[in-house]
Amino acid sequence: MRVIVAGERDACKSHGVYRLEGCLRTIKAGKVETHANPVFSADEGAILRIDADGGFANAAFELGAPRLVERAHELGMAALVINDCTHFSALWPEIEALTDKGVAAMAMCPSYASVAPSGGTAPLLGTNPFAFGWPRKDQPPYVFDFATSVAARGEIELHRQAGKPLPEGWAIDREGNPTTDPAAALEGAMLPFGSHKGSAISTMIELLAGVMIGDLTSPEALEALGTTTLAPAHGELILAFDPTRFANGRPGDPFERAETLFEAIAGQGARLPSQRRFAARKKSLTEGIELSAEEWSMLERLKEKGLAAV
């Protein structure tokens, strides 16, 4: 629930209470282990591993994060592999948990096949999110978190629920034709951002966070799940770096040099990523989180009926 609350707090509606129904559908279908017991394992090297035991990825990450930070400070960098997990949340809550401890971090994972590769006509890649964070003193970190598709699948679903057409260039229908109909997009395929560039990055994530860690790729995840209406099962890869260890012996403090870069970006009038989210967070922490009447109605229905509501 912490990541869902965080989504609402930061006005990230596609990863807020909207996700509850999908989580409950996945539980009802028996596709996630609700009493999972994640198991940590590691040797003296840089690779740490969590067997999520078929449960949601969040509990596995929380078990491994402190050890990941410790090993990154010890060796300069470390990797946390999460296997056999079900994933529904954004990656930035994990990244911020790491930047809060003074390390730079990356996180990535496959999804299930719902995105056509550049030039393709059918779903093959996942939305395959990728996130990065850099710690900053006395202010929120530099963080970005984005799907390698033009938009997150949750955004397509929110457009469908609202009866709103999609922007052009987001998706194709089942026949491979461009569409702005969210229902047709959900039956067809989303498109990668930046055409061949997003397609290449998405494929990299399939390789690093699927093939390389011995877990499911997006086509395999869809085959195992049989539907795109439930949260997908696969693995996740998180990398942590200690900037002071990497810059050791070189002139300048890496954190101070980073601030010079950020100031130069802002000095041109450009917005750093996540600034809207941090502004929404600041407002929520003083004024509270506001839900729509429809969202309250959904929560009341889920509270009253439980799994029977989905």
From TrEMBL:
Keywords: Oxidoreductase. GO terms for molecular function: oxidoreductase activity. InterPro entries: Mal/L-sulf/L-lact_DH-like_ah, Mal/L-sulf/L-lact_DH-like_NADP, Mal/L-sulfo/L-lacto_DH-like_sf, Malate/L-lactate_DH-like. It holds the Pfam family Ldh_2. SUPFAM superfamilies: L-sulfolactate dehydrogenase-like. Belongs to the LDH2/MDH2 oxidoreductase family. This is Malate/L-lactate dehydrogenase. It comes from Nitratireductor basaltis. The lineage of its organism: Bacteria, Pseudomonadati, Pseudomonadota, Alphaproteobacteria, Hyphomicrobiales.
